Amino acid sequence: MQAKYPGWRAALLFVVLFVGVGSGSAFGTVDKHASPTLSPLPYPKALQPQVEFWTEIFGTYSEYQVVIHDAVYLDKVYAVLDFRPLLEKHSKAKVRKLKAERTKQELRKIRAALRKLHTHGAKGRTLSTREKKIRALFRDVKERHKFRKAASKKRLRAQSGIRERFRQSLHISGRYLPRMEKIFRQKGLPVVLTRLPLIESSFNIEAYSKVGAAGIWQFMPATGRLFLTINHVVDERLDPLIATRAAADLLKSNYDKLQTWPLAVTAYNHGPAGMARAVRKLGTRDIATIIRRYKSRTFGFASRNFYAELLAAIEVEQNSAKYFGPIKRDPLLRYDEVDLQHFVSLENLARAADTSTERLVTLNPSFGPLIRNGKLYVPRGHRLRIPAGARKDFTRRYAALSPRDKADQQAAAFAFHKVRRGQTLGGIARRYGTSARTLQRLNGLRSAHFIRIGQRLRVPLRGKGRRPAARSVQVARAASDGTHIVRRGESLGKIAQRYNTTVAALQRLNGIKNAALIPVGKKLRILADSPDKAKARYVKHRVRRGQTLGSIARRYGTKVSILKRLNGVKNVKRLQIGQVLRIPTG
Questions:
Q1: How far lies 338's CA from each of 352, 387, 395, in Å?
Q2: CA angle at residue 499 from 497 to 500, to 5 degrees?
Q3: Fold match between domain 164-324 and domain 538-584
Q4: CATH class of the domain whose range is 414-460
């Protein structure tokens, strides 16, 4: 390594062993300096070491500095590695590689020192300087086998600083925070809770975690669906303001169940059921006691530190000038809103708003990829954000759109494939000209390696692969002479469905050999008295957790009133998971 990167050890500014982190932080500043707009949260004295540790991570240490510490006693810091001097001679990529290598080496050395202290005792004459400092670090810990426990993989931990990212998140937060605070005030919640995205996502609206959490509030799909619409058309987790309303509802629900804000906030990470279990098991609602004593396989480092991180983030934000100098936040995102009465393409909406599709996506980040690439329409009933001051002209241009540009139902951008024996997700993806990852996302598959024989998969129609693509929009009524003029985007299947007939019948009647190839403008004969006319024109939908009659209606491009009448639903708030609904297709 020395030959590969000459002089890199000398360039490393320091590796310092010391006791404690954040000695300059004042205890209780979250309460003491709370502004009138930020209601204080409880600050248990027992959490002071954790809060001070995270305050330093957020406000002092750079991403090119690594703090090696104990995961239980966060004030026990073994070393701080500083790789910033290497940036003068090496690229960021090389420095990151060196950072990873050097951190692993330091962890091995510290673990060896801890094991020696456990095995050979703490006799001063046999200890190195490093070992003496570690011994002094744990002088106040009376725990049995403390050095052996501290040497375990769960206890010995390396944490990079995030000073640069935190400063950037403060800049970005200006776009949303005023409206987020208003939402929390309206719901009667402490406004200070709007700072959770500082630790969850750094206000990155496109943030995705490895386990599937998304957006600035990092909602998991299952939890998100309790409050939000999440499907192949829109993902409201990605809209900061819509997701803020959901986060406020979730936090309020947590508080109602757990009765304290430290528990409610921790439940945002660990789940309300998990925190209720901790309360029952220990017989206390004190967050510090639960963090210290509660043992659970899922109650790990992140959950134990979640509330302390929030307190630290509030501390750093309220004293941002101390940590970063003057902070100029981004201006508040301004826009007008209009309610859509039809299914309309993003391109046509951008034209009506006299802006670009990119600008509309920025204002409406919940739009899924299929809306963004024009394969699906923005759904009817969606509250569309348009540039500020554009509402009057938008209304005029929208009214002037041709009838074919304002559909009454969603475009058909999918086919369904039934899995047969021997098929893999990769093979199915190649057949339809897509990727296994796309199929995994569209069908909510946890693993690309597990699909069942007979399983129905949603497949995007892209016009590639062996199977021809098909696209459709709302089909016009048949002319009085029993004919239909094919319009752009229509498929023979949709036309057959509209007129209560079959694709085969239309092919026979019009001499069509390939049902997938029908030219725009072709006049089709429609049999007025189709034998299929009496067939019911609906599909079945099984209600899943988190779905509402409204979200189901939006998904299928219909109305709640129609679904209520068709299914005999009296109370829209009492859908049952697994209940089968009839959905009109005409």
A1: 12, 11, 8
A2: 65
A3: no
A4: alpha beta
